[in-house]
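Hello,

Following up on my earlier ticket. Below are the two sequence lines again, exactly as submitted.
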Amino acid sequence: MSFSTFVTDKPGLQKLYEAIISKHETYAPVEKFGKFDYRKVSSLKECNTNSPIEMTMSVKPLFFPRSAKIMKYETSSAGTSICETDEDPLAGQRVILGVKHCDARGLQVLEAVNKWDYIDSDFLKRRNNTVIFSTRCDKAATHCFCTSLDYDLENLDATDVAVVHGTDGKIYIQPRTEKGNAFMQEFAPALAIAEGDAPAELKKQYTAFASSFRLKMDYKDIHEKMAKRFDSTAFEEASRNCVSCNTCAFICPTCHCFKISDVKIKDTGVRYKSYDSCNNIYFTLEAGGHNPRPAKYRRWRQRSMHKFVFYKEKFGVNLCVGCGHCAISCPVNISIFDVVNHVASSPISS
Amino acid sequence: MDYSKQIQDIAAKLFTEGKIDVFVGYRMNGFDDNQVPAVITGPEELSTLVFTEKSVFNLSNYLKADHTRNKRVGLVVKGCDSRSLNLLLTESQVKRDKLYIIGIACEGVTDDKGQKMQNCMECSFPDAVIFDELLGTPKGKKEYQVNVDIRALAEKSLVERREYFEEIFENCIRCNACRHSCPLCYCAKCCIDQETASLYNGSNTSSSAFHALMTWSLHLAGRCVDCRNCEKACPSHLPLHLLHKQNEKVIFENFQNHLAGVEEGDRGAFYKYSLKDPDDFIL
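Thanks for your patience. The regenerated structure is below:
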């Protein structure tokens, strides 16, 4: 890593953010109905760039929209013709400020599946044209467990520019990728380059942050433990409270199941790609009426096994970033952490 | 309001006498002072049961789950929960002889921040209306109040109201958590899941959210008991009670002060016929 780290103070950071907002299309956490969501902003006053830890919505919808038009078609007596949609997969560059690190990690994890087999050009185009500014958290929220899942000081490449509020009161701005570094060149003249003690200070900040976690677990061999417990009754016990409401999947930064639906009015139709969830009872319902996953615990088994076993085997990373969004939004506070912890520590059934 | 000990004793007795297979109550969530539902299948876990003003979730929602279907169930219900249970009984979703109902004379529950919930401040029936055993001192029926938010909305202009509701529908992500957490939404195939219905169409656009939420609220008109399970489940924190409370107000004013699930065997305003019903809207 040879990019130089910049150092500034609170007013300096505000000035930088204001300059970015005035020059580029910018998104940042905005409060609506008492929860934060990443939205387009035109001034710094509208948003909270300090990454509120209780944030409930992830950054995923800006890359994988809740409902994307993928095709338009027209039918006539001559047959069906396909025409272009008005969906714009992002032509110019945009910036997202105040992204939580776990959210950005979610995108990094999702890239693997979007580059595999079928290449989702829209997702990749959106990611390539976006500069992500992450704000490192100072302390963990109730349901956070990101430090348990591959997140450490070295592994910050998910974001383009990391903004760290040091314990010494200074703010360190650290470009992490080529794209982030190139973007920062525009604003570099107004900023000072950090002295040699910056890495030590960043480490200190990380240590303070890592010690604030309530949830800790050794996830190194979790996929082996889980794989051995496919038939465990622990899934049934852990999912007993679930009301199958699907909230967890819709707000998860890494869940990427979708459904395709056609909306046809008279002769023109639009095909939508929208979110779906494996916790939904209809998810695996076949046209003939057979449902391979009718019971709640089987759907939970699929969800947790996909996150910690299947994805890990295929792409080498867990499909969970430990953000705890699912537990915050769940009406009965079920956390994927508790489910996986319960299953991994249960006896192996013969 | 702390009935933890009484509930533990009753549940222990029920298990010992072999009267129930499952007990549905509340337990602490394990990380702060809020509670989550507890579905208990044996007497071992009974000591975890609690009941205080933090026992918010409407447990009659669990009567449609795999663990309780066709089983003998012990259940804790507050005033609003008991009204939804009454409706489930009337609509033949559960059998009365399979239930042992612990009713609570509720003093109101609080939200995550410790504030008394809005529906509790306006509650007309704080005491459980159906029970085998009642805990607490009954306070009796209170006068019906029109919801404070509905009154505030009524003063706004039509344009302002439309803009407000458009914002609500735009923020809906169509996860259908509201429907799944509603104790009275038990249809095996919900109409808003029909992929062929282009009104709902499965996409997450604000137009499909509008149609889905309106259909949902109209299906619950005259049935909604204002337990706020839907609002608690909504990840977008939408004020979903507005849709239901407006229906409730119109029905209360037009159908002889009808409130859902208060009387045993009551089928709901739209499912029964009375000569006193207004007919001025019939062409």
